[in-house]
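User: I'm putting together notes for a lab meeting next week and I want to include a structural view of one of the chains we've been expressing. I don't have a solved structure, so I'd like a prediction I can at least talk through. The sequence is below, exactly as it appears in our construct file.
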Amino acid sequence: MPDKRILMKSLLILLFLTPFLEALELGTPFRDNAILQRGMKVPVRGWSPPKVPVTFAGQTKQAVSGPDGKWMIELDPLKANATPAELTIAEKSGETITLKQ
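Assistant: Thanks for the context. Below is the predicted structure for the 101-residue chain, given as structure tokens.
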């Protein structure tokens, strides 16, 4: 039965380390200098620990991830403008992603 012990120890180690492996990440179309559609809701997707605030153009939405770590929020429709803005996603641990236009 040593195989079961090794398996159990491995699972316990994995369960212990899982919170440290969670990383804040955005979906593919989101990067610096991205252009967002005006006049309609803008979906923002990513992966992260359970809850993260997403801030853009005076809006802050709370993203809540599912069991797989994926989340999606919708920004309210945006007005056309040429003013640069930042999209910021931050988590409690201090990890932050800031995209600039």
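A couple of points you could mention at the meeting. Strands lie at 25-26, 42-47, 51-56, 59-64, 70-75, 86-90, 96-100. The chain has one domain: 23-100.

User: Perfect, that's what I needed.
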